[in-house]
Amino acid sequence: STLADLLAQLEGVATNADLAAISSTLADVQADVRELLEGESTINQNVTINNEATLMYAETLVSTDTEDPNVIVNGTVTINTTNFSADQITRTNDIARKLATVLNNVSITSTTSLDFENLSFIDANLTISGSAQQIPSLRTITDNLHVTQIGAIDFSGITSAANFTVVASDGAASNVNSITSI
After folding, report:
1. What strands, in cross-sheet order, belong to the sheet with 140-141?
2. For residue 179, what are the CA distances in angstroms to 133, 134, 148, 175?
3. How many CA atoms lie within 13 A of 3 on its CB side?
4. Residues 6+ apart with CB under 8 A from 147
5. 114 SS3 class
6. Average pLDDT over the chain, rounded to whole?
C-alpha cells in the first residue's frame, strides 16, 4: 500500500514540497524493507559444531547477540557436545537459540540439554542422542524423528513428522528404562 501511495503521489508532483513528501515516504519504505531483510538471516551451508575449531567457525556464521536475527540454515546442522567444557556448552547454546529453520537434517548429540527455543521447522530428519533437548517451538519435521536419550521427552508442539522412533536405551543394560516420560 505504501508503494501504491508513492505512485499516486508521483502522478501529482508539482512542487519541491511534493517531492520532499515523496522522498520522505520512500525513506520509510526503504527502512521497512531493510527491517524485513534483517528479520531473518540465511546461512547457505552446513553448520557443524563438534570441537573448538568448528564452534568458533559457527560463531562467525551465527550472530548471537539478542538484537541479531534468528537464522535459516540451508544445509544440515550437526551438533555434538559430548566432550565440551562448560564455556563451550554455553557458546553452543547461544547458537542453538538462534536457529529458526533448518532445510536439511539435524543431528544433536549432547549429554547436556541445549535450548533450541526458536527452532520451528526441520525439512528432513531430526536425530537426538543423549540428554533431553529443549525445542519448544518445533512444529514440523518433514521426515523422521529418531530419539535415543535419557530423561523426559516433550515434543507436544509437533504437528507433523513422517515417523517417530524413540529408543529407551543408549545400548547399556542399565539404561533400558531411561526415558522417564513422553
Report:
1. 40-43, 70-73, 99-102, 121-122, 140-141
2. 13, 15, 9, 8
3. 3
4. 127, 128, 129, 153, 164, 165, 166, 167
5. coil
6. 82
**Count of CB atoms situated within 10 Å of the CB of 157:** 12
- Grid coordinates representing 70 are 534468528
Amino acid at 108: I
User: Whole-structure pTM over 0.85, yes or no?
Assistant: no
pLDDT value, residue 173: 47
Q: What angle do CA 106, 174, 81 make, to 5 degrees?
A: 30
3, three cell numbers: 508503494
Task: State pLDDT tens for residues 71-126.
Answer: 999 999 999 999 999 999 999 999 999 999 999 999 999 989 899 999 999 999 99
**Integer Cα distance of 33 and 54 in angstroms:** 33
Structural element, H or E, at residue 80: strand 77-80
For residue 134, pLDDT over 90 is answered with no
Listing DSSP states for 40-60 in one string gives: EEEE-S-EEESSHHHHHHHHH
pLDDT digits (tens, 9 = 90+) for 158-177: 888 888 887 765 555 445 55
